[in-house]
Protein: Dihydrolipoyl dehydrogenase
Organism: Acidihalobacter prosperus
Amino acid sequence: MSEETYDIAIIGSGPGGYRAAILAALKGRRVAIVEKADWGGCCLNRGCVPKKDWHHTAQLIAASRNFAKRGIAGTLSAGMDAAWEHQEGVVASVQESYVDYMKRLKIATFEGTGRFVDTHTLGIVGRDGDRTLKAEAFVIATGGRAHVPEPFVAEAGKVLTSDMLFDSRPPAGKRVAIVGSGVVATEFAFIFAMLGKEVVWLARSEPLRKIPFSPQARGVLRDALARHDVALRKVSGFAAVDTSGDGVRIKLTDGDKVEVDWVCLGTGRVPYTEGLDLDKVGIECDEHGFVRRNPQLQTSQPHIYAIGDVASPEMTANHALSDATVAVNNIVDGRGQAQDSAWVPLAVYSAVELARLGMDEDAAEDEGLEPAVGFAAFETSPRALGQDDTDGFVRLIGDMDSGALLGGEIVGSEAGELIHLLSLAPDRDTALRWLASGRYNHPARAEELANATETLASKWGLADAILR
Ligand SMILES: Cc1cc2nc3c(=O)[nH]c(=O)nc-3n(C[C@H](O)[C@H](O)[C@H](O)COP(=O)(O)OP(=O)(O)OC[C@H]3O[C@@H](n4cnc5c(N)ncnc54)[C@H](O)[C@@H]3O)c2cc1C
Ligand SMILES: NC(=O)c1ccc[n+]([C@@H]2O[C@H](COP(=O)([O-])OP(=O)(O)OC[C@H]3O[C@@H](n4cnc5c(N)ncnc54)[C@H](O)[C@@H]3O)[C@@H](O)[C@H]2O)c1
């Protein structure tokens, strides 16, 4: 059995593990990374990347409904088969570039399952035999897996998790039940409808209940979904699922029955720590299965860090990527940097894009702060009007005392891009001034951020703090 020694060994190659490996190698460290399945993890193979590929097709179809006003004739349609093939090509190309970049940075890559042998030794069981490696620091980035609640049982062709959706070509049946009200269900309800499916969206609560989007944001989402005939049917619960014969029959707890061709579950993800032997090295998980860590992202073993879905309840690629930066800064430079998850942007891609970060007004008041809201709607934006796409707004939460930026929400096309203007601002104390005095391209959606700072300045008496 061969044994090698590294500065940092990383388990899992999703956005968290991959980013940690790249950053540590760029900082001159000897890095090993272990992956048991597909390079790139959930995000690249079964999450953000293929989902956004499908979302783009969905948006093109949705936009085509306004084409007649412009004298563009004809109707467009899209199908899931072609969409599935398209994402396969995109994923393969991104994966190739990831693997190539790791090779160029001389990162040692191992295909196999990692597990702790002791606090400085990782065992790897792989296709090319077993080996162990030693490292001074470790990063656990093993991600999560789809949660399948009773009475559902995952079954190919009938009841699919989002992982199964991308692992092989989805079933042909047209009538699909989407279960859940979280991000996965809210995104796929729109995407599937635009890809020609007849969507039956079943959930126990309103869409995106867990994320503190404002009532205005929820209203824009609801209207945009309705415009595309996508509506959530609120149900009391799920009593039984029958997959015998053709199709799937779902019995609801109120006795009603729903019959569909197949089901797509968006019923949450849970952290994945199976087979890591964490107990051997004294690392604990919380009651939900997330690896316990401190704000510097260290587990109870200070040289073993935990990042991304395996430890972060937000479970987004954005959080995994940001965790990677914090962990590597702390391992390599000993910075003792604390992660501030609230300032990592979150974006949802549905009939409209919704993005947010930081505090909402309630959270600010809970902290004893005095929040004020700066608002600008896209309905008067020359860029949005020219695109026939005026849904949404920019909402900035400022602190009445200091003029600091406390949080922000952007709803509408390109919200997932525009949110970077908030997350990349040099610091929160000066962010509003920075946005107000910036140089903008015209006409552009980004200008609405500057307009929102002006509402704060004039309406809330923050002119001195913002317009200096
Ligand atoms: C349908 C869908 C769409 C999504 N869209 C978005 C989006 O638009 N934006 C966003 O921010 N987030 C999105 N997410 C969430 C995002 O995919 C995850 O938050 C992200 O992938 C987590 O990254 P990670 O590095 O923590 O783990 P993962 O990406 O889950 O990667 C973990 C890796 O570790 C490997 N592994 C596990 N155990 C071992 C072991 N013992 N040894 C070796 N390897 C191991 C796994 O095989 C896996 O490849 C989406 C998720 C889903 C399901
Ligand atoms: N754009 C993004 O950033 C993005 C996109 C997709 C997924 N993700 C992440 O992936 C993770 C998984 O997403 P998700 O939407 O599956 O999870 P979620 O936790 O957001 O939502 C889970 C849904 O399943 C429902 N549910 C749970 N148990 C149930 C039961 N027994 N019966 C009926 N319904 C039940 C919940 O009520 C909820 O509506 C999330 O943490 C999310 O942040 C992020």
About this structure: The mean pLDDT is 96. The two ends are 66 Å apart (CA to CA). The pocket of flavin-adenine dinucleotide (ligand 1) is lined by residues 11-17, 34-38, 41-43, 47-48, 51-52, 113-114, 141-144, 162, 184, 272, 275-276, 308-310, 315-318, 320 (CB under 6 Å). The domain at 159-267 is CATH 3.50.50.60 (FAD/NAD(P)-binding domain).
